[in-house]
Specification:
The complex is a heterodimer. Chain A is α/β, with parallel strands linked by helices. Chain A has 9 helices and 14 strands. In chain A, helix 7 links the parallel strand 11 and strand 12. Chain B is an all-alpha fold. Chain B has a single domain, classed as Orthogonal Bundle (Non-ribosomal Peptide Synthetase Peptidyl Carrier Protein, Chain A). In chain B, 52% of the residues lie in helices and 0% in strands. The chains are: A alpha/beta, B mainly alpha. At the A-B interface, helix 6 of A face helix 2 of B.
């Protein structure tokens, strides 16, 4: 029996329609966390640029941060929650292997029966989500996609860990992506290097915990991760700029994952961005919020008056996996 | 093209000075990166990466802790070039 199937065809372009954020309620200065790691405010500022990190208050869960950010993004996009037909949550801190955070969030928002799935791509999760949403909209598979990077990193911190604990914060950043008359999202350049899987991540597996090991926490080989991010990510960023048909001088804002200020500074050098480019440096006050860090840094740039609607931004995420993703976007 | 140890030292000193702002005269073979030149682990990785590019050698991450002095780094780069 032969037949032909029909397929969907979407709009030519997609764009980010609205942004929303939620930060952990507590602003935690370096002084509050240096004791158990035998460090100093000066050392943390010098090594990472961090002055404070935001942490969720008692009783605030990762899904609560995701919901607050999502409601703001949906309102800023000028649509109703019921119009969202796809929910993507990028996270590594939803405390269940299943169900995923996305269907729970969709239910809370009133977006049921939206398609809903989580992305586990660590600090590249937000850019993975934006790339996925762009493809879904332009394929005609989805109309309005909610992409949320949401993390409660503080649930997985060992306060005595000197490699990563002091960097980490809690927060969520959400965007609604939908159809557009003009190009709003450039091609996503993404990839992985699983040979580096041991460089950053959970100390040990859940089955080891079941067999008697302690609750697992996050750690990293800091210098190795620094080297990879600071130097190997610049060519990816340049590819994303070229794929969007642009050159570095066309970029208005650079919004990298907020891993470490020293990484950001080296990336700016390696990419060769002009001094006129606004640079996301939210890590100073928010810390490293993993999948939430790029949308939080974008919000901070708006709040500081450093960017405006219509500006062209290069965003790049990179992290545990190792995984990475970058794209040029038009700021909503 | 293998360089002499003197040329490697000069090339490495350029990188160290650019990254840290120390005086070229301070970058001597017997100087410890951490204790004498006050270079932290992230600056060390930057120096190693730039040296890999300049001298067209590979310096594995696990090797870096063995490069205690400038002389250790010069020896390693010189051998890797051979």
């Amino acid at each position: 029996m032969t037949g032909t199937i029909s397929i969907t065809k979407g709009p030519e372009f997609s764009r980010i329609m609205g942004l929303g954020v939620a930060r952990g309620e507590n602003v935690v200065p370096n002084a509050d966390i240096i004791g158990p790691i035998d460090s100093s405010d000066e050392w943390i500022r010098k090594m990472t640029g961090i002055v404070t990190r935001v942490r969720a208050a008692e009783g605030t869960e990762m899904i609560d941060l995701a919901e607050r950010a999502s409601r703001e993004a949906i309102a800023n996009a000028g649509i109703e929650p019921s119009q969202i037909d796809t929910v993507i949550v990028s996270t590594i801190t939803f405390p269940h292997i299943t169900p995923g955070a996305a269907p729970v969030l969709a239910d809370r928002l009133g977006a049921t029966p939206a398609a809903a799935f989580d992305i586990s791509a660590a600090c590249a999760g937000y850019c993975y989500g934006v790339g996925q949403a762009d493809a879904l909209v332009r394929a005609g598979q989805s109309t309005y996609v909610l992409v949320v990077g949401a993390e409660k990193m503080s649930d997985y911190i060992d306060p005595t860990d000197r490699s990563i604990s002091f960097l980490l914060g809690d927060g969520a950043g959400a965007v609604v992506i939908g159809p557009s008359e003009t190009a709003g999202i450039g091609p996503t350049i993404w990839g992985s290097d699983g040979a580096g899987a041991g460089l950053v991540g959970q100390t040990h597996s859940w089955t080891e915990v079941r067999n008697g090991a302690s609750f697992p926490t996050l750690r990293q080989e800091g210098p190795s991760v620094f080297k990879w991010a600071a130097f190997d990510m610049a060519p990816i960023a340049l590819k994303a700029i070229a794929a969007a048909g642009l050159t570095p001088s066309d970029i208005d804002a650079f919004i990298p994952h907020q891993a470490n200020m020293r990484i950001i500074d080296q990336m700016v050098k390696q990419i060769g961005l002009p001094s006129s480019v606004a640079i996301g440096r939210d890590i100073v006050d928010s810390g490293n919020t993993s999948a939430a860090s790029i949308p939080l840094a974008a919000e901070r740039l708006y709040r500081d008056g450093a960017v405006k609607s219509g500006d062209i931004a290069l965003q790049i995420g990179f992290g545990a996996g190792l995984v990475y993703a970058a794209q040029v976007i038009v700021l909503p | 093209m293998a360089l002499s140890e003197q040329e490697v030292l000069a090339g490495l000193a350029e990188i160290v000075v650019e990254e840290t702002g120390v005086d070229t005269a301070d970058v001597q073979l017997d100087k410890s990166f951490t204790d004498d030149l006050d270079i932290d682990s992230l600056s060390m990785m930057t120096i190693v990466t730039l040296a890999e590019e300049k001298f067209e050698v590979r310096i594995p991450d696990e090797e870096v802790k063995n490069l205690v002095t400038v002389g250790d780094a010069v020896s390693y780069i010189s051998s890797a070039q051979a």
